[in-house]
Amino acid sequence: MSVLDQHRTTTAKIFPHPLDAWYVAAWDHEVTARKPLARTVAGRPLALFRTPDGRAAALADACWHRLAPLSMGELTPEGGIQCPYHGLRYDASGRCTSMPAQQTVNPSAAVPSYPVVERYRYVWVWVGDAEKADPDLVPDMSQMDSPEWAGDGLLIEAPCNYQLVLDNLMDLTHEEFVHGSSIGQAELSESEFDTTHDGDTVTVSRWMRDIDPPPFWAKNMRDKFPDFTGRVDRWQIIHYRAPSTICIDVGVAKAGTGAPEGDRSQGVNGYVMNTITPETDRSCHYFWAFMRNYRLESQLITTQLRQGVEGVFAEDEAMLTAQQRAIDAHPDYEFYSLNIDAGGMWVRRILEAMLRAEGRLDEPADRPTDLTRAG
Q1: Class of CATH domain 22-127
Q2: Per-residue CA distances from 14 to 107, 235, 354, 367 (Å)
């Protein structure tokens, strides 16, 4: 094992990102047939657009001729894209179809194109080995477009390594301290939790029985049960799927009505849908939504929930930004791990295995990384 391999472990502070994976490049409504969308996915600048028949396409955002960003160009009537600098035209497969002032097109003129799948209201892109781009590997986020669930979400441009967001979502005890005015409460740290892992998945489950509901959940209970008062049983079941999708089954039910045993009829159930796309070593696109399975007809509740969760996640963003700044200011400082980090550490082990399979575990980051020490 090389020295770099020894330091590229599950506990690196600046974690590389796998390439052989599906990442969300955009919400489906962001990609149009009117104007290209520029977005960097796993270090690859992309130009995203739709063809006239509505199909999404992703090309490298650099013209073959002089590397001008294609995302600054115009879409062509035949379903391609025109370079903004000298007018070269490309089809949706990346092949150049027209060059200015000449009838013969250089046969080598092309830009990389990337496999695209549209699913769960997102446009997913595979930037690694295209032969491995199996659509069945897209993580399950079926609540996003199921008629049994309603909700909405947003995109956060987070100025931190994507792994810091995964750490944040795999350990929700931070809610007690970061989100005390909305979803946090002392029982989060006091309750037991269970961590399991299988293949490329990790699950962390926590139940809090017979507790006072925090403000966010008290409001949601009154949305379904207007006369609700009293105590609740609360659950958080975190489902991770490699490389960076985390769907969290959350909710509360009237205490003692059977929710821990499977009867959630006297409660409210939500799913916090999160999928994080690395942009650079120190930035990521954080796509999220909050879905619910009650009062599906109410746009008011959908809007209120989106706004409420947006406020909660703004607190997370502020903390993650500060954490990344501190990491960069202290490159030699070593992390420590607590019991609450169990889920996040299994995530890191899965990512480490993916990186090793790609032969990229010892790929250098911008700065030296350090090992986490248990303590």
Answers
A1: mainly beta
A2: 41, 31, 16, 8
